[in-house]
Write a structure and sequence with these properties.
By secondary structure, the chain is of the alpha/beta class. It has one domain: Ribonuclease Z/Hydroxyacylglutathione hydrolase-like (Metallo-beta-lactamase, Chain A, 4-Layer Sandwich). Helix content is 32%, strand content 18%. The strands form two sheets. A seven-stranded mixed β-sheet has the order 1-2-3-4-5-6-7. Strand 11, helix 6 and strand 12 form a beta-alpha-beta unit. Helix 7 packs across helix 10. The longest helix is centred in the last third of the chain and has 23 residues. It starts with 9 loop residues before the first helix and ends in a 13-residue tail after the last helix.
Length: 319
Amino acid sequence: MSVFVARMAASAVLSCLISAALAKPEEHIELPDWNKTVVADHDLGHGVHMLESFGGNIGVLAGERGVLLVDAEYPELNSKVVAAVARVAAQPIRYVVDTHWHWDHVGANSNFAKSGALIISSEQTRRHIVEAQRGGSAPGTPYARDADAIPSLTVGSGTRFHLGGQTVEIIAVPPAHTDGDLIVRYIDADVIQTGDTFFHGFYPDIDIEHGGTIDGMIAFYDTLYRMCGPNTKVIPGHGPIANREDVRAYQAMLREVRNRVARGIAAGLSEEALIASHPLDDLDRQWGGNLIKQPYLLAIVYEDLKSRPAPAGQPSAGR
């Protein structure tokens, strides 16, 4: 069972829930006992590791002059993450890449920055963090004012690292989970890290308030599949290591979810009536066993489709 089961933490609510005006159901999220929460290390070969714990998966690559991390986890787990990295490499953590702005991926930015790391993100992610800090959160809570938590370097379409004898590509993708998603490709290791553009094994969250769209996610999986070879290892935002066939299966599931919601809208169903009709019960058996449940996903997709025209080749939601 994934460590993500039923508990992404309160910050996920802050980051991902759309406004109450849209009548979207909320997910009940329980925080763990941080003292008992484990950070597991998965060695993917060629010097690349995945750290898996309560929040987003972390990618690790060590070079002679320092360590690159992709995503930062919760601050409550920072000491355990640092200890796990120290078991992989003796070098200091020099670079941290934020795949997007949600707290379970950027919460420990400040910890790493204060220790000398350069925080890197897309311009959109930096802007969302800055805006969230203007919300007046109390010290010690998510997105409290903290200049060190704000990325210092932003990338446009992408950039490259040359570290530890390997080439690492940071790639900006069109809006999918958010409008500022980055993915990371460890070229020599044949590993791709997706952030929350891809959840492995269960329904996704889509931050439609910050530019995410179900159509963007579905379209992105064509790109991700083409980037993968038969042996490519995919580090998802949450869940276990995946391969390109897992990506195709996930795309098929999301496309089916989208089509069913679009048909309900075209038939004149309200959001509440659509949810009450339980159109995803058969999919729940495989995909509904984690945090994101059917009512929540249906509401996200309903609001998303009602707010935009369908792209070419996709059923219209109707109005």
